[in-house]
C-alpha cells in the first residue's frame, strides 16, 4: 500500500485545468448551440461531475479552457438570483440547494483557446493562470465515479516524486489506437482497492497501431503535470492528426529525465466522448442514482426482458 501521509502535507498542487474548447461535432445537432460538456448525465452536466471531482481532491481553483460559443459553461457555475427566488417562493428547497451548490463547488476561471490546435495547445492556454506550480489536467470526456477516486493518489505521488503522474487503464487491443500508450516498469507499490499498481513510465506514444504499441496501458483523462510542461509544449510540433499533442510534450520531458509515474485505475469510469459511450454512462450512473436508481433499474430490467428477449 502507498503511505501518503507525508505527501498529503507537502502537496503544492491547488489548480486544475479542464480543456473544454472542442466543437462537439460527434454529438451534432445536439451540440449546435449547447456545449457538449453541458449535456446532462442523468441530472447533472458532465462538466459538473468533473469540477466536483477536482474540488473533492482539494483543487478548488479551476480553469476552463473555452472556445467560441462556450460561454454557457461559465454561466452554469454562476449564481441565478431570479431562479433562486422562484424556487425559494415555491418552497422547492431541494432544487434550490442543487443550483446553489453548482455555484459554490469551486472558483471558476476561464481562458480562451482561439482555435482547436490539440490538447497540448489547450493546456498551454492555462500557462498564465497556473504559473510556476504543478497542476492537474482533467478531460471532460472521462467521468471517474466519486466512489473510486484516483486524483488524490496521483497528487500524492507527484508531491513525493515530482514530475508527471498519469492515470492509466488497461484497454482492449482494438481500442489502443484511440489513446496515448505507455511502456512501464514496476515500482513494487500498489494503490488501494480500485487502484492497481503505481508504475514508472519509461516511454509513451500517441495513438499507435496495436502492433507497434509498447503495451495495452492507455493514458486516460487525468494528468498531474509540472510547470515545465509549458515550455515543452511550446517546442512541440504538430503530431498525430496534425495537432499539438500533450503526449508528445510529455515524452520530450521524459527523454530529458523528468520522472513520469502512472497509477493504474481499476474502478468505475464512464466515457462520454461518443454517442454510444454517452448512453452507456447515463445508464450506468442512472441505475446507481440515489433517488432514481431503484425505479430506473426495475424499468430497465423489465424493458430488457420484454423488448430485447
From TrEMBL:
<dbReference type="GO" id="GO:0006011">
    <property type="term" value="P:UDP-alpha-D-glucose metabolic process"/>
</dbReference>
<keyword id="KW-0548">Nucleotidyltransferase</keyword>
<dbReference type="InterPro" id="IPR029044">
    <property type="entry name" value="Nucleotide-diphossugar_trans"/>
</dbReference>
<dbReference type="GO" id="GO:0003983">
    <property type="term" value="F:UTP:glucose-1-phosphate uridylyltransferase activity"/>
</dbReference>
<feature type="domain" description="Nucleotidyl transferase">
    <location>
        <begin position="15"/>
        <end position="283"/>
    </location>
</feature>
<keyword id="KW-0808">Transferase</keyword>
<dbReference type="InterPro" id="IPR005835">
    <property type="entry name" value="NTP_transferase_dom"/>
</dbReference>
<comment type="similarity">
    <text>Belongs to the UDPGP type 2 family.</text>
</comment>
<dbReference type="Pfam" id="PF00483">
    <property type="entry name" value="NTP_transferase"/>
</dbReference>
<dbReference type="InterPro" id="IPR005771">
    <property type="entry name" value="GalU_uridylyltTrfase_bac/arc"/>
</dbReference>
<protein>
    <recommendedName>
        <fullName>UTP--glucose-1-phosphate uridylyltransferase</fullName>
        <ecNumber>2.7.7.9</ecNumber>
    </recommendedName>
</protein>
Amino acid at each position: 500500500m502507498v503511505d501518503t501521509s507525508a505527501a498529503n502535507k507537502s502537496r503544492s498542487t491547488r489548480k486544475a485545468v479542464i480543456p473544454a474548447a472542442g466543437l462537439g461535432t460527434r454529438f451534432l445537432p445536439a451540440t449546435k448551440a449547447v456545449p457538449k460538456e453541458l449535456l446532462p448525465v442523468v441530472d447533472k452536466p458532465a462538466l459538473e461531475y468533473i469540477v466536483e471531482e477536482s474540488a473533492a481532491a482539494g483543487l478548488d481553483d479551476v480553469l476552463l479552457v473555452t472556445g467560441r460559443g462556450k460561454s454557457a459553461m461559465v454561466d452554469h457555475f454562476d449564481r441565478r438570483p431570479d431562479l433562486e427566488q422562484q424556487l425559494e417562493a415555491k418552497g422547492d428547497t431541494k432544487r434550490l440547494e442543487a443550483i446553489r451548490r453548482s455555484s459554490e463547488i469551486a472558483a471558476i476561471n476561464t481562458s480562451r483557446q482561439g482555435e482547436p490546435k490539440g490538447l497540448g495547445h489547450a493546456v498551454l492556454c492555462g500557462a498564465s493562470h497556473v504559473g510556476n506550480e504543478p497542476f492537474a489536467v482533467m478531460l471532460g470526456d472521462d467521468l471517474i465515479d466519486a466512489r473510486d477516486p484516483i486524483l488524490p493518489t496521483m497528487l500524492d505521488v507527484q508531491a513525493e516524486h515530482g514530475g508527471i503522474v498519469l492515470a492509466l487503464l488497461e484497454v482492449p487491443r482494438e481500442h489502443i489506437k484511440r489513446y496515448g500508450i505507455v511502456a512501464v516498469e514496476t515500482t513494487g507499490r500498489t494503490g488501494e482497492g480500485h487502484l492497481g499498481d503505481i508504475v514508472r513510465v519509461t516511454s509513451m506514444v500517441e495513438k499507435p497501431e496495436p502492433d507497434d504499441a509498447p503495451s495495452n496501458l492507455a493514458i486516460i483523462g487525468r494528468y498531474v503535470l509540472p510547470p515545465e510542461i509549458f515550455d515543452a509544449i511550446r517546442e512541440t510540433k504538430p503530431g498525430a492528426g496534425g495537432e499539438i499533442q500533450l503526449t508528445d510534450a510529455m515524452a520530450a520531458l521524459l527523454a530529458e529525465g523528468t520522472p513520469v509515474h502512472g497509477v493504474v485505475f481499476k474502478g468505475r469510469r464512464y466515457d462520454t466522448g461518443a454517442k454510444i459511450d454517452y448512453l452507456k454512462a447515463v445508464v450506468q450512473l442512472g441505475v446507481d442514482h440515489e433517488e432514481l436508481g431503484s425505479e430506473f433499474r426495475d424499468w430497465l430490467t423489465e424493458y430488457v426482458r420484454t423488448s430485447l428477449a
